[in-house]
Amino acid sequence: MSSPDEPSAPPRRYHDEPLILIVRHLRDALGAGRARIEVPDPDLGRGHYPGERVGPGGGLVHRPLRSWCDLAEGLSCRLLTPRAVDGTHVALTFERLGAEAAWHAGGGASEEAPPPQERYGAASEFARVRKLEDAGFLLPWLEALGRIHLPPGARVLDLGVNRGDELAAFAWLEGAPDVTFVGVDHGASALAEARARFPDARHSFVLADLNALPAGLGRFSLVLSVGTLQSPGVDDHALLRRLVQEHLEPRASLVLGFPNSRFRDGEVVYGARVRNLREPDLSLLVKDLSFYRRYLHQHGFRTFLGGKYDLLLTAVRGGASPSRTDSEPLD
Question: How far is Cα 36 from Cα 184, in angstroms, rounded to an integer?
Fold first, then answer.
């Protein structure tokens, strides 16, 4: 008798069948929420399966684990940890993802819903996300920050700072630059966490709407904003103009993150999406990026675009040249 956590049907075993047959089987089998199959062990690697030959009828076909992860994501599933079956095969379990995270929905107010200012607050579903524990964010973020050379005592402005995840990474950079943080957010509970996280009196965290930045912020050597400028209600074009004209030093940099993912059932799902479309649609993202790069180029910045789940636009003006190799283009 199977446990509640196991698929009820016995797993189908695959050897050298085309991937499209596996895709079709999983789509049919996932009606129950989970499907399990047995496939050649990816760790054995190409050329190490008994009897493997080139071409059809080769016995076993090698597919890396990354390929199975891509398949799970394409089927709106999570891939559970593979389990060994025997000397050649492992069992893979695909589990359908639940609904999108509540903070994506927006929607109207209800008795259960937090006020808009606390949609990303300390008690929200978003508070369980730990960006710096996700390699898909951490490595591109460190790469982006590593491109920036900041002078000692530089002021860094983080728009939509929340609890300060992006700022915590500065301590891990080579040389750990001595900088002063100013964070702006409209969520009081998240700002309280940021203040506790960075108790140095030089740092300040300001409760404000991004459309109405408070007077007296001053100018900065670096401006950061990840996943905030495209938020509903934010006039990002006007905000960008104000930053460039009023809040950047002559030699300054920006690192701006554009969401290229959604959260479903605790998982990051690749690709910007719009309502009523199942597949990712990157057209709006490309349009935003085109505007930002064009505007920044017109104001003397050079840009580099990286990242995956968050596309990170690094812009540098003046002598704050990024550390890079000749193979890394900076337009």
Answer: 47
Euclidean distance between the first and final Cα of the chain, in Å?
Answer: 61
Strand partners, 40: 89
pLDDT at 330 over 80: no
| Residues 129, 84 share a domain | no
Q: Find out whether 221 and 245 touch, Cβ atoms under 8 Å.
A: no
Same domain, 170 and 42: no
Interval 22-50: pLDDT, tens: 999 999 999 879 999 999 999 987 767 76
Check whether 110 has a pLDDT greater than 70. no
**Contacts (Cβ under 8 Å, ≥6 apart) of 312:** 140, 141, 144, 226, 255, 256, 257, 258, 305, 306
Dihedral sign for Cα atoms in the order 197, 202, 206, 210: negative
Q: From edge to edge, which strands make up the β-sheet containing 204-207?
A: 204-207, 179-185, 154-159, 220-226, 248-259, 310-317, 302-307
In which element (H, E) is residue 193 found?
helix 188-197
Which pair of structure tokens corresponds to residue 11? 């797993």
Query: Is the pLDDT confidence value at 171 over 50?
Result: yes
Are residues 263 and 269 in contact, defined by beta-carbon separation less than 8 angstroms? yes
151 and 283 in a single domain? The answer is yes
Domain encompassing residue 60? 12-96
**Sign of CA pseudo-dihedral 297, 145, 231, 283:** positive
d(CA 59, CA 48): 11
Ramachandran category for residue 87: left, alpha or beta (phi over 0 → left; psi -120 to 50 → alpha) = alpha
Average pLDDT over residues 301-325: 81
Q: pTM score, two decimals? A: 0.84
